[in-house]
Amino acid sequence: MEPKEISRRNFIRVSGLASAALCLGVYFPASAKEEVIVSKAAADARGIEMNAWLQIDTDGKVTITDHRAEMGQGSFQSVPQIVAEELEVDLKDVNVIFAQGNPKKYGSQITGGSSTIRGSYKQLLHLSATARTVLIMAAANKWAVPVSECYAESGNVIHKPSGKKFHYGELVVDASKLEAPKEIQLKKISEYKLIRKPLNRRDTPIKTNGEAIFGLDKRLPGMLYAVVERNPRMRGTLKSFDSTAALKVPGVKKVFKVQMKVYDTTRDGVVIVATSTWAAMQGRKALHVVWDDSGFEHVNTIDIVKRQEELLKTSEGISFKTQGDPDGVLKQSSNTIDVIYQTPYQAHSAMEPLNCIAHYQPDKIEVWGPIQAPDWIQGNLSDEFKIPKENVVVNMTFLGGGFGRKAFLDYPYEATLISKEIGAPVQVVWSREDDTTQGPFRPGIAYRCQGAIANGEISAIKFRVAGQNLDHWQGGKRDKPNSSTDEGFVKPYFNSIKNISFSDINFELPIPPMWWRSVYASTHGFGYESFMNEMAALAGKDQLDFRREYLKDERCQKLIDRMEEVSGWKSRKKNEGYGVAITECFNTTVGQIVKVSRHTDGKVKIDQVWAVMDCGWYVNPDIIRAQVEGSVLMALGAATIHEITFKDGLPEQRNFYNYLMPRMSDMPPVEVHIMENTADAGGVGEPGLPPFSPALTDAIYDLTGNRIRKLPFDMNKV
């Protein structure tokens, strides 16, 4: 594999291969319900702009255009693994390039919602199988033999009776002239040689030897460097600045005001442009700025929490979903529970801080960087700068983590503004302090959960949610509930619980909220599944058996069986605490069991985590295990170590010295099990996070009798 950036000229050249290569892609005819696979030659003849995902040249080299970002989730391994399986080629012969932003060609390119594989695996399978089929057809034509006598293997087409063979490169010219067949036979799962195999990731070597190009590594001729001193309170404005001292710093070229759009408002800042990032940073230190922060509330965390609690006690909120009559049942019940759970604000803290290179020209914009949503960026820059979309080029590099933050529009927009002002390409780099303090943040959310038990069974459940609503910040109507109010809650619950409701309480603050790994499920999972554990206790039942009663569909029953089996749930010992949670997001259900005990030093420690994932069809079990392990560690940090708190409207945490990260010694043993079935693919990169915190707190309750309802908490103090 040679995963490298590709210039616009080379991209056009590679994508334009026709007579010298087999180039297959898909297009979306208005009259068809599904996409159609065509060759490049056929597409040109029909005047069709197709999505050119797959090319094979005369050397037999396969090139895949990956339309999604690679930010650590493994798409540079899993996408080639899919293609190589159905195409019958060796993985070492597969090259991967990043697609440029172009939703007309590629559809959605957002790398979020764990959608890379689940959103495109069927296309990739059919595309690869189609390429294999037309190559076999081309070989059969050359030999003048029936297609049924030929098969593909290791980049060759072989004639069974004679043993004659052509390598793919010898067939691509003829194959490119053939009409792609409409009916393709895909392999059965039992026939897979590569898919579902724990193959080593092919991007690991280049990411460890320095060859991989991340956003911070990218360089352009004549490029300048910039940092921005932004108002630490987003709604504040710039009153004045003195650049005298900054301009005396060697290498500093220019200092000026910039306004970065953040949702429907702006964040004022002062740009320092220099010949190096270091010079720009030194110039920033010498800058003198006066802000005007009047006219809006300066929030404090203690007040945020109190306001959420008060709203949960006094407001019914906006109904999201109701079935049955939970209010009526709760009023008449004597065996009830009414509790509040609270989760904190969080920063994204990706390993690679935000950065972006932009080159603005009067008739063209081109950007490079760690970008999760190239199609969104292309559309936004086109709209904001009144330049046709086809003249806005968005180039993806590798991402050093994203977690949703690098799908936002603000930082490429700001870089483009700066490039326009200075008339040159510029790389804008955010410091770790910028990244930590300026957000947008995962919103802290509070939950009021009420439930009733009658005769050992759930008779009613009522959930109310108070937290910032991303829908509102993205232009949604204030009288509508959060569209993700029940995210994380396992859908089969609705089939078994007759009286249940969810409502969203409008909660507005001058703090920009943002997606975070597993989005709302990362917080909802704690509230909803912690409450299910409390309901089990109120009913006097085992937590896992309790879920078995209400998650009655076959896949959930098998998942629970597996959880029970791998954890030794039925043979739990005294002085050991076991906790359980099951959550669902992005079409994947994950159950986790956490085991804790009090060690000789008196502290409660995590001894083991068992995670069982049902993601349907999947590619690489090693990637799944890595993603679940990473999710557990990220969830552990958010549950027990770090949070963003506000004082006088300012985040109190600035860098890793007070926004602490989990250390290697904090990582518990994690055992990951994958359910085998033929269901459609679900997500992998995010669903492993939500069940951890409720399973952990349930385990602590099981051991100590102490019920934890507010995150984060200190493991050393339970």
From TrEMBL:
Pfam families in the record, alphabetically? MoCoBD_1 (PF02738), MoCoBD_2 (PF20256)
Where is the Aldehyde oxidase/xanthine dehydrogenase a/b hammerhead domain positioned along the sequence? 209-295
| PROSITE patterns noted in UniProt | TAT
InterPro entries reported in the protein's UniProt record = Ald_Oxase/Xan_DH_a/b, AldOxase/xan_DH_MoCoBD1, AldOxase/xan_DH_MoCoBD2, AldOxase/xan_DH_Mopterin-bd_sf, N-heterocyclic_Hydroxylase, OxRdtase_Mopterin-bd_su_IorB, TAT_signal
- Superkingdom assignment: Bacteria
GO molecular function: any one? oxidoreductase activity
Q: What is this protein called?
A: Molybdopterin-dependent oxidoreductase
